[in-house]
Structures are given as structure tokens and as C-alpha cells.
Amino acid sequence: MAEPTAGWPGSVAELVAEQRALAAERPRRWHPTSDPLTAGCFAAFPRGHSGKGSAGDPAWAGAAAYRRRRCRARATTSGRAGWAYEPGLLAMRVGPVLEAVVRALPVRPDVLLVDATGRDHPRRCGLAVHLGAMLDIPTVGVTHRPLLATGAWPADRRGAASPLLLDGERVGAWLRTRQGRRPVAVHAGWRTDAYVAARVVLGSGRHRTPGPIREARRLARQARASTPR
């Protein structure tokens, strides 16, 4: 079982203060190349897990790095949740185990896809932003729905996008990754904006969920299944 990495806040008050500090930073904007090494990460909890969970829940994490839609590296690890799930405080629950699994990859990705929001957050610092800052890697959030932002769905064609706004600020976009399927919410993260987020996700496969996150999810669930009860 991987040990939690150092540096993550140990209390809600510390997390809120760090979120506000990170939201105020203006790091140099990342501009993707035509062929970035794109990784995804995902954390899984015990089968039958429901509700908010609690601190100490076992967690399994997977990470996968892709180039040209081919998987180039994989990693898994396990740990313990640091907190119950609460909107806006996801970093307390899974931040350390996700950082550990991305660091376990034998390659350093150019950009990281995170199953979490970014600037769509009450303090403009969701887990996608926080994790990117901890790893010093540009990040993009990908979720099924926004946290606070609102916006109309885009046209029903692959690549169509429409803005997600929070207090008038474009913090992400609805993105149609497959025609005839519900769009995903893509989020500006660490060193990225909503436009870059959509570009990276569209370049990450033709499934509704980007390939790197799909593979990371499979790895996390496989690691969970292989753990003796």
C-alpha cells in the first residue's frame, strides 16, 4: 500500500486556505503540442460503496499515459481516503493517492486528465487544479456534470462545445465527444483554459470518456478486484 505523499492539507481549514491561494496564482499558460503525452488518473473505492464514505476508506488508484491513442505507460497504487466526500473538498479524500499513482508512472505526462472539476468550484480550485499544482503538470478536469457552473448543451455532433459559466466566467465547457451521447463537462485546470481542455479531450479517443481516464478506471478497479478481502 502506498504511503500518502507529503504536502496535502491536513484539515478543512488548511485546504480552504490553500485553495484560495492557488486560485489567486497565475501560472504560465500551457499550450499543447500536436502530439502530447496525455495521462489520466482515477480512484476507486470498495464495491457497494455509497454515500459520502468516511476517512480511512480503502482506495485504489490507476493512471495511464497515452500518445496517438496508444497506451505507453500504466501504474496502480492503493491507499486510504483522508476524508469523507464533500463537494468542494475532494482533495481531502483522494488527492494524495492520485498524486502517488501519477508519480508512479515511468514517464512524465505533458498533460493530465482528472476525474474532477477545476475552476468550476466555489473557490475556483477544484481537485484538477490542486493536483496539477502539486505535480507541476498541466491538468484538465473531466466530469459527467458541472459542480456549480451552468450552460446549455451543445449541438449533437462530435466536437461541438458550449460554455460553462460561473459568475460570468468561462470555467469549462460542455463537450460532445460522441454524436448521440450526452456531452461531458470539461474543466479548465492547472495552466489550462476551457478551450485547451476541449482540445485535449477531443484528442484523447472517440469514446464518450477519454481513453486515458477509461484505462485508469479499469486499472483502479482491477487493483481493487485483486485485493484479498
Automatic annotation (TrEMBL):
Which GO biological-process labels does this protein carry?
DNA repair
GO cellular component term of the entry, any: cytoplasm
Q: Taxonomically, what lineage is the organism?
A: Bacteria, Bacillati, Actinomycetota, Actinomycetes, Pseudonocardiales
Could you tell me the superkingdom of the organism this chain comes from?
A: Bacteria
State if Hydrolase is listed as a keyword. yes
State the Gene Ontology terms under molecular function.
deoxyribonuclease V activity; RNA endonuclease activity producing 5'-phosphomonoesters, hydrolytic mechanism; single-stranded RNA binding
Q: Which UniProt keywords apply?
A: Cytoplasm, Endonuclease, Hydrolase, Nuclease
Species this chain originates from: Haloechinothrix aidingensis
Q: Where in the cell is it found?
A: Cytoplasm
- Indicate what this protein is called per its UniProt record: Endonuclease V
Which Pfam families has this protein been placed in? Endonuclease_5
